[in-house]
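Subject: Protein entry, chain in single-letter code together with its fold tokens

Area: Proteins and the way their chains fold up in space.

Attached in line: The record itself begins immediately under this heading.
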Amino acid sequence: MSLLLRAAGLAVVFFATACSSSSSTDSPTDGATDGTSSDAASETAADTHVPSDATSADTTVTPDAPSDGGCNGIANIALEVVDQYVASPYPGATGGPIADGVYVVTAVTHYTGAGGRTGAGTKKLVETLKVAGNSVLGVRQADAAAGYAFNATIVTSLATLKWKQTCPDGAVGITYGYAVGDSSLDVYEDTTKTVTTYTKKFITPGG
């Protein structure tokens, strides 16, 4: 859509995730370490997560008092995910058309390379994105922080996704790699070698 997208992201449609303050406000996902630093340093990195069963994310979660000035009113229907470290090479973005729809975060994966760190991290994320053309409406809750809503625009070209937060008033745009699957959107953060996966929800009328 953290387009999409912190970045959903979204990864599509992203994506990611944007925040309501500092540089993480226009990202579908926040950053993470590449597994070469100490575990303590790794755990201070921004939001990330582990695969979760997206098809069971049917319960509406009301975000905590958003500090977004009323950006949108969408419900957060995602399940909580925890970041995961894998000792595998960082995959390459492949792009693709991002379908309109509602996406929930289902994984945040840090690629640490051969012999790198493995296992679950400690960062938790609950995030939902609604993608319509170049517009993304999102709601996110990270760790114990209050949930908040955000709006963004996305522009894709080849395997890159340009993310620009518009509410709360966003900073400069950020460019991510991205890849589209049958019902998923992966957002690539090259500097941290992190991939955030969003899975499209098939919502029945009234659901």
About this structure: The beta strands are 81-86, 101-111, 119-132, 135-142, 148-157, 160-167, 174-180, 184-189, 194-201. Residues 39-43 form the longest helix (5 residues).
